[in-house]
């Protein structure tokens, strides 16, 4: 047998090492493209990822891959091709993309025993030889008896069940009857409370399923534009069943970890134990275990957040991306990928179908559907003949004129009383965590600000401190004003913590639950909060955008949107789109059961087109206005955009570097429009100044070529960090 050589990306994040290194593969080591290996590099041992294999090398004598104690972890080969594509598309390091393909922890392995080929071929001879050793014979018989159901038996279990010792096992290994191997330690799996119902598909659902079937047969993308409560999840389940019946596997992506308990319960109810869950809230060993099960082909469906798009499924037949419009699918740290683009590329590499589902499609996806680039299917009605909830707009200016300064309008308070008396559930949405967003002195106007960031500190009642939501700086609220020594420091504004506190006083007979980043830090907190809400132990749920997505709780009869226009205030060209999506999505939580739903929309801007369209349920109307504006401005999705963010501890250096970069592009723009440089809306974070440049071009490849030199370190700007983000979801 000839020598085999592997082309390996080493796990050292440095531009100068962004290349492949050749290593010799030891004889007998089953290295494949996609294997994670350990290699000597200079004077240390590092992880590496195999991008290629060859039978020859021009490098002379090479160092060898180090054989692992347990088996190799190997991702499907097309994922390595995907990683290479990501490095090119997002101008990141190859190793940054490769590391996304594997779990962060080690697979939880325990020593095991399995029969050798010799024992399986002639068990009688081995048993005869052991007739004078009953203990070893019992151990051998136990391992043989278990072989049909599981190839490897945990060593501890084998010894306990047979009454044998470790030395007996060692003897059988030496004699060639048994061999040592490893078994995975299975973590506890949360129970599934979902029920499988016999559902008759609507005509629109059947049409959607047929379109998805064609995409699975031929490859392609389907945009499933279904109103809230229209049965998109049922279509997903049927599509997954079709894929599995054809010998394929599927990935179901959700935008938020908070949704995984509900969605994984539903999927497990249909597919049992052949379901893996992947997201960052799991422990490292749990993620590694689920990843390993997927790698071994022991699952049919992987459910998870953004990173689950890289699940190591060899027979991928379908990727489903629920709530495809959600900005959570974009990673903000390098590699700054969008899961929708990565899913499309992976589907293309494997011939799988891609299903994009949403009640409020992104302009990117809907414009592609309008242009005929992807298939479009509509689910325009809720299932079971249920109507969409009634929408009532409350102008906050009228409330103030009437002397009501509470975060609850009079109408919302009245409707809450009525809903709770009837045993309904009430959801109140406010996309602002903490207790109060402002700590201000009423004597001199002093505001508590983060010393390292250009933001006000937010007061948190649970810790009785003022906290920065960007760098996590935290400090106690002083007894007197640091500026004027006055005693009138007050908390202004309302966050979810303050709402929870005041609602507990207004409705003392009813429990109040809160779902936001702060209340869901502990393990199992998402499920516990939702269980309390579903059961009625806490029939009022206050939350941020976590409660806006995908929750299907039939008892919810009333939804209150406390400040519907809050997202309109952000300096971002997607502000109107986000507002439309949030209001529509939160509203869709109401009226999913036997009782009709009601939504109270509180706003200071009732005439804004995004709010009017959301209240009227008019996506087409919103799209027409927003698309016309974006086209006129030359903004995405009708042009490619990249943001260059310059970060430095020196304000002068950040400004100079940004000016130099922008000036260099303006000298030879090649069809690129340059906006800026200017201070970023968040001009200082973690003690560092931030300047940014926005670049727009009709052709994304032209934009990428222009920025490649900058990304690869071709331009040096001392003391500055340069971050390039294609199609930014935030320009703060």
Structure report:
This protein has five domains: 4-99, GIY-YIG endonuclease, CATH 3.40.1440; 109-184, no CATH class; 203-384, P-loop containing nucleotide triphosphate hydrolases (Rossmann fold, 3-Layer(aba) Sandwich), CATH 3.40.50.300; 387-433 and 495-628, P-loop containing nucleotide triphosphate hydrolases (Rossmann fold); 640-726, Ribosomal protein S10 (Alpha-Beta Plaits), CATH 3.30.70. The strands form seven sheets. A seven-stranded parallel beta sheet has the order 11-12-10-13-14-9-15, with helices on both faces. The protein has a six-stranded parallel beta sheet with strand order 16-26-25-17-24-23, sandwiched between helices. A five-stranded antiparallel beta sheet has the order 2-1-4-3-5. The relative contact order is 0.08. It is built from 22 helices and 30 strands. The model has no long low-confidence stretch (mean pLDDT 94). Helix 1 (77-89) packs across helix 12, helix 5 (134-146) crosses helix 7 and helix 8 runs parallel beside helix 9 (232-245). Helices cover 33% and strands 24% of the residues.
* Overall pLDDT confidence: 94
What share of residues is helical?
25-40%
Low-pLDDT runs: none
* Strand runs, count: 30
Look at the helices and sheets and give the structural class: alpha/beta
CATH architecture of the largest domain: 3-Layer(aba) Sandwich
Q: Please identify the top-level CATH class of the largest domain.
A: Alpha Beta
What kind of assembly state do the chains in view correspond to? single chain
Shape: globular
Distance between the termini: 58 Å
SS element count, helices: 22
> Numbering strands along the chain, what is their spatial order in the largest sheet?
11-12-10-13-14-9-15
CATH fold type of the largest domain: Rossmann fold
State Rg: 29 Å
CATH superfamily of the largest domain: P-loop containing nucleotide triphosphate hydrolases
């Amino acid at each position: 047998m000839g020598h085999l050589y592997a082309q390996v990306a080493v796990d050292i994040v440095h531009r100068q090492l962004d290349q492949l290194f050749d290593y010799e593969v030891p004889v007998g080591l089953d290295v494949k493209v996609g294997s994670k290996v350990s290699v000597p590099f200079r004077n240390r041992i590092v992880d590496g990822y195999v991008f290629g294999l060859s039978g020859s090398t021009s490098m002379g004598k090479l160092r060898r891959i180090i054989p692992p104690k347990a088996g190799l972890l190997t991702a499907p080969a097309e994922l390595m091709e995907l990683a290479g594509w990501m490095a090119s598309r997002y101008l990141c390091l190859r190793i940054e993309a490769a590391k996304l393909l594997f779990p962060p922890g080690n697979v939880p392995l325990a020593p095991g025993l399995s029969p050798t080929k010799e024992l399986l071929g002639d068990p009688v001879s081995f048993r005869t030889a052991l007739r004078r050793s009953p203990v070893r014979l019992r151990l051998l018989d136990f391992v043989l008896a278990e072989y049909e159901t599981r190839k490897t038996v945990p060593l501890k279990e084998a010894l306990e069940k047979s009454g044998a010792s470790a030395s007996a096992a060692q003897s059988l290994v030496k004699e060639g009857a048994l061999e040592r191997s490893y078994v995975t330690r299975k973590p506890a799996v949360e129970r599934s409370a979902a029920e499988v119902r016999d559902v008759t598909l609507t005509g629109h659902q059947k049409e959607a399923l047929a379109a998805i079937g064609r995409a699975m047969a031929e490859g392609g993308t389907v945009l499933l534009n279904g109103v809230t409560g229209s049965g998109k999840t049922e279509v997903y389940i049927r599509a997954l069943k079709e894929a599995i019946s054809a010998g394929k596997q599927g990935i179901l992506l959700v935008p938020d970890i908070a949704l995984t308990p509900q969605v994984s319960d539903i999927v497990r109810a249909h597919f049992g134990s052949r379901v893996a869950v992947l997201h960052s809230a799991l422990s490292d060993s749990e993620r590694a275990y689920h990843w390993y099960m997927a790698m071994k082909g022991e699952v049919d469906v992987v459910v998870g957040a953004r990173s689950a798009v890289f699940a190591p499924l060899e027979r991928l037949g379908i990727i489903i991306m629920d709530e495809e419009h959600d900005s959570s699918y974009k990673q903000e740290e390098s590699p700054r990928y969008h899961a929708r683009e990565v899913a499309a590329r992976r589907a293309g590499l494997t011939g799988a179908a891609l299903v994009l589902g949403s009640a409020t499609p992104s302009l990117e996806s809907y414009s592609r559907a309008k242009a005929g680039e992807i298939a479009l299917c509509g689910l325009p009605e809720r299932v079971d003949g249920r109507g969409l909830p009634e929408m009532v707009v409350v102008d906050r200016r009228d409330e103030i004129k009437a002397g009501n300064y509470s975060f609850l309008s009079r109408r919302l308070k009245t409707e809450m009383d009525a809903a709770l008396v009837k045993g309904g559930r009430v959801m109140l949405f406010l996309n602002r965590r903490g207790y109060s967003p402002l700590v201000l002195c009423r004597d001199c106007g002093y505001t508590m600000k983060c010393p390292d960031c250009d933001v006000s500190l937010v007061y948190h009642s649970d810790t009785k401190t003022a906290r920065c939501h960007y760098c996590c700086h935290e400090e106690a609220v002083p007894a007197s004003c640091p500026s004027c020594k006055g005693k009138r420091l007050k908390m202004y504004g309302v966050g979810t913590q303050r709402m929870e506190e005041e609602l507990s006083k207004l409705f003392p007979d009813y429990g109040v639950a809160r779902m936001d980043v702060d209340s869901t830090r502990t393990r199992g907190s998402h499920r516990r909060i939702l269980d309390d809400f579903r059961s009625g132990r806490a029939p009022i749920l206050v939350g941020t955008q976590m409660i806006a997505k995908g929750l299907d709780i039939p008892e919810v009869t009333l939804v209150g949107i406390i400040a519907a226009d809050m997202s309109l205030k952000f300096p971002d060209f997607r502000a109107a789109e986000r507002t439309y999506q949030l209001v529509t999505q939160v509203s869709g939580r109401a009226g999913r059961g036997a009782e009709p739903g009601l939504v109270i929309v509180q706003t200071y801007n009732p005439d804004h087109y995004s709010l009017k369209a959301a209240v009227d349920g008019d996506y087409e109307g919103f799209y027409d206005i927003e698309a016309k504006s974006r086209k006129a401005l030359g903004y995405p999705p009708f042009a490619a955009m990249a943001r260059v963010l310059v970060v430095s501890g020196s304000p002068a250096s950040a400004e100079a570097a940004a000016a130099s970069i922008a000036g260099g592009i303006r000298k030879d723009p090649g069809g690129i429009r340059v906006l800026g440089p200017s201070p970023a809306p968040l001009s200082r974070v973690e003690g560092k100044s931030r300047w940014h440049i926005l670049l727009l071009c009709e052709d994304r490849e032209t934009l990428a070529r222009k920025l490649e030199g900058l990304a690869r370190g071709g331009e040096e700007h001392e003391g500055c960090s340069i971050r390039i983000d294609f199609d930014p979801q935030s320009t703060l």
